[in-house]
Design brief:
heterodimer; A: mainly alpha; disordered N terminus; B: 680 residues; alpha+beta; Phosphorylase Kinase, domain 1; Transferase(Phosphotransferase), domain 1; 4 domains; 14 strands; 50% helix
Chain lengths: 160, 680
């Protein structure tokens, strides 16, 4: 009598096969898409370099830095992408844009703004939170003072 | 016990225009017209005018430093006497010669004056018929009148016999209320046990004591000179112990044989054998009684020497030991007294009792149990002379004389320590233990003494010697210096006296000293133990509240309705009570309210305002809540200060998150805007 194949093994092999297949499929689609939109891909590859750099240098586990830089970096790319798509979607046009100082300043400037935003906002939040805490402490001390005025300094003593 | 009784102090006199004092709107007493011939040893006599005419009167202004015999005054007041000086009335008044309030007692004025002014005076004896008619029968009638009204006189002596008529044919027995019982009596007029006591410690005594004094008085009038010959003081007492009072006092005097029987009956030292009034009346009526033979004191084969004296009997030894207290401990403790009693006097039972006392003193820890050489000596004296007074250091008193002894010592600024110590060492009980006869009247006295001792052991105001004073002397006025110028005998008169005193005292002083608190505790019939306990609290607020509560209860129960002076005085002392409230608003409110209540003069209202239970509970609850709120705020502040580092981390994370969100939103908006521009 022939042995039955282990149930775990019978399932693992088709899953691994389907995963590899999916990857290959996705890679193929991406390659196809990249070839189809090669000017866009090339433009974004260069224009989004600050975001890549932010991702690489970001040691924060939450990885907020690259999102912050990336968001504004992409916002800086959007006008040029639309122009690329609407005027002529060619490698030359993409190359022209990438070599244009104004384009690079706009794209990288937006990324810089994102970086500045990332650096500036936490201290501002910190100051805000500190102010809020100070105000709460002041309120509590005022309450204590009011209690002392009504009940005398013995209200603050541990033993009555 | 002490002479006492409830009396109302309503019959106070008012001052007349010429400095005279008017009593009951009828009797005008003139301080400027003294009558020195009628003075008592401790009370000065003054002329009196009766607005309604009638009998001539005189007044005695009683010494304010002696307890009065108020119950006796009340029982004699207004009574008709034929052979006793009639006490017409009495009252309390400010008496200018004393510069303070005192008791004024009115008597019918004896026109014939005093029989003799001094015991040293001599006169020619009356003939026997005159003696019987003029002296004996009227004075026996006087004794009968006194007994009929329940008065134990205790001041019958030759110098206290007066004649109501100018012809000196109507003798009367003089007053007895100007001093404690037997206080003014010369020792020769007192039975031995009383004679050996201090004058203030003789106690109220009995009719038997009066009969002895009567006997001495009769003897003096009979022989026309001082009985006892040249002997005085201790010598006379020792002679009376050795030979019996009758023999010692009559001496070599010559008098009618018929009088021997009556004098022997009256002057016998054994009070049980002494003639009573019935026997006296029978004798006066002509019936002759069987002669009494005095049992002589047992004499020792050889004398006991102490302090240069040679004593021959137990009673004499007790007297000598007490008189030489400092030298007496050694012969008692080293057994000399015991040996003398055993061998020279053949008193084995007494010797054994003395030896037992000495043995007890030698036990380990005897001193801590109150057995000291002094207490042993005092108990030995009692064993030697059971009828004698309690002898303890300088104190000599009979148990019933404890109250007056303490009162006189306190009022005259004498040292009361010996009396107090004897009480603490249970000497009164020791006295009762050695008595051979049982008197049921002593049961209540023993019980009272035990109660007194419990007061004496507590040092706080409301207890101690002062409490004992007022418990033992019902007619003792309050001795507080605050009311010193007034004669506060009744509890009802205390608050008005304090109200008047408020105008003169330092407002910061306390209106209840030890005497006042003890006086209230002893005289007030309601339970004030809680108030006194609060008064004695070491906490200023509780103590002040206790004081206010005590006086407020007095005013509530006894009046008067308004005491503005005292209220003002107390009002200045209530700051600790106000400060006992935690809430400052409540304090301010009370500080505003107190002056209004002070003006009203009502201590109960003041007390109710300052110790409102509901308000106090509200204050306590509010304070507890406030403390909790304060502590909560404190904790939150501490938490927030400690959380600063964490807050920075949190701020960094939130800031980064916010930056990322803002960035993405800008990106999305930009895409949307440019796409929209392209479409339109």
């Amino acid at each position: 009598m022939a042995k039955k194949p282990a149930p775990g093994k019978s399932k693992t092999k088709p899953q691994a096969k389907s995963g590899a297949f999916s990857r290959i499929l996705l890679l193929s689609l991406a390659l196809a898409f990249g070839l189809m939109f090669l000017p866009t891909v090339i433009f974004l590859a260069f224009a989004m370099l600050p975001t890549l750099a932010a991702y690489l240098v970001d040691r924060n586990p939450d990885k907020y830095e690259w999102i912050c830089v990336g968001g504004l970096n992409f916002a800086g790319c959007v006008p040029f992408l639309i122009r690329l798509w609407t005027v002529r979607h060619t490698l030359d046009a993409a190359s022209d844009m990438l070599t244009d100082v104004f384009t690079l300043m706009a794209v990288y400037g937006a990324a810089g703004v994102g970086w500045l935003l990332f650096m500036a906002l936490p201290p501002m939040v910190g100051v805000f939170m500190q102010m809020k805490a100070q105000r709460r402490i002041a309120n509590l001390k005022a309450t204590q003072q009011r209690l002392i005025q009504t009940w005398g300094p013995e209200v603050g003593k541990t033993k009555a | 016990m002490a002479d006492g009784g409830a009396a109302t102090q309503t019959n106070a006199a008012v001052a007349g225009s010429d400095g005279a004092v008017v009593l009951r709107e009828r009797y005008i007493i003139h301080p400027g017209r003294p009558l020195p011939d009628l003075n008592s040893p401790n009370a000065l006599a003054y002329a009196v005018d009766d607005r309604r005419g009638g009998r001539p009167l005189f007044a005695l202004a009683l010494a304010p430093d002696l307890p009065v015999r108020l119950a006796t005054i009340q029982s004699m007041r207004g009574q008709q006497f034929a052979s006793v000086l009639a006490l017409i009335d009495y009252g309390f008044a400010y008496w200018p010669p004393l510069g303070r309030e005192t008791v004024l007692v009115l008597f019918e004025r004896p026109s014939g004056g005093r029989l003799i002014a001094s015991l040293e005076e001599t006169f020619h004896p009356l003939s026997d018929p005159d003696y019987q008619k003029i002296i004996l029968r009227p004075l026996v009638q006087g004794m009968e009148e006194l007994k009929g009204r329940g008065v134990v006189h205790r001041a019958i002596r030759p110098t206290n016999i007066f004649f109501m008529d100018a012809e000196r044919t109507r003798p009367v027995i003089g007053e007895c209320i100007s001093a404690p019982p037997a206080f003014d009596q010369p020792t020769l007029c007192e039975p031995l046990e009383s004679a050996m006591s201090l004058p203030e410690g003789r106690g109220p005594g009995t009719y038997a004591d009066d009969m002895f004094a009567f006997g001495v008085t009769l003897l003096y009038i009979l022989i026309g000179r001082r009985p006892g010959g040249q002997l005085r003081g201790r010598d006379l007492i020792r002679a009376r112990i050795a030979n019996g009072s009758f023999t010692a006092l009559t001496g070599d005097a010559r008098f009618p044989i018929a009088m021997i029987e009556v004098l022997r009956g009256l002057l016998i030292d054994d009070s049980q054998q002494r003639w009573d009034l019935e026997a006296m009346k029978l004798w006066v009526a002509g019936r002759r009684l069987s002669p009494i033979l005095a049992k002589p004191e047992k004499r020792a084969a050889r004398p006991f020497r102490i302090g240069g004296l040679e004593v021959m009997s137990r009673r004499d030894l007790a007297l000598a030991l007490a008189d030489h207290w400092d030298q007496a401990t050694a012969p008692v403790m080293d057994g000399q007294v015991e040996v003398w009693l055993r061998r020279a006097l053949d008193e084995k039972e007494v010797a054994e009792a003395v030896a037992e006392q000495v043995r007890q003193a030698s036990f380990p820890g005897a001193a801590t149990n109150g057995v000291t050489p002094d207490s042993v000596l005092a108990r030995v004296c009692l064993r030697l002379d059971p009828q004698g007074p309690i002898r303890f250091k300088a104190a000599r008193f009979l148990p019933e004389g404890l109250g007056p002894a303490l009162a006189v010592a306190s009022m005259r600024g004498k040292d009361v320590r010996a009396i107090v110590e004897s009480l603490l060492r249970e000497m009164p009980e020791a006295w009762f233990e050695v008595q051979t006869t049982f008197d049921p009247a002593n049961v209540s006295l023993i019980s009272q003494i035990k109660q007194i001792r419990s007061h004496l052991r507590l040092p706080q105001p409301g207890f101690g010697v002062e409490r004992c004073l007022y418990e033992l002397n019902e007619s003792l006025p309050c001795l507080s210096p605050l009311v010193a110028s007034e004669y506060v005998l009744e509890i009802e008169d205390l608050l008005p006296a304090l109200d008047r005193a408020a105008k003169q005292v330092d407002a910061k002083s306390w209106p209840a000293d030890r005497h006042i608190v003890a006086f209230v505790a002893a005289r007030f019939r309601f339970d004030v133990d809680k108030q006194i306990a609060a008064l004695n609290s070491p906490q200023a607020d509780t103590s002040a509240l206790g004081l206010l509560s005590l006086l407020a209860v007095l005013q509530w129960k006894l009046g008067p309705e308004a005491l503005p002076g005292l209220s003002g005085w107390i009002g200045g002392l209530v700051a600790p009570i106000i400060n006992s409230y935690h809430n400052r608003d409540v304090r301010k409110s009370l500080e505003k309210e107190v002056p209004k209540l002070v003006r009203k003069g009502s201590l109960p209202d003041l007390y109710n305002a300052l110790d409102d239970v509901e308000a106090r509970q509200k204050d306590l609850d509010g304070f507890a809540w406030a403390k909790a709120e304060y502590a909560g705020a404190e904790q939150e502040i501490l938490d927030m200060e400690a959380d600063a580092a964490n807050r920075e981390t949190q701020a960094l994370r939130i800031g980064q998150q916010s930056a990322a969100v803002v960035s993405v939103m800008i990106g999305l908006i930009t895409v949307c805007v440019f796409l929209a521009l392209q479409v339109w």
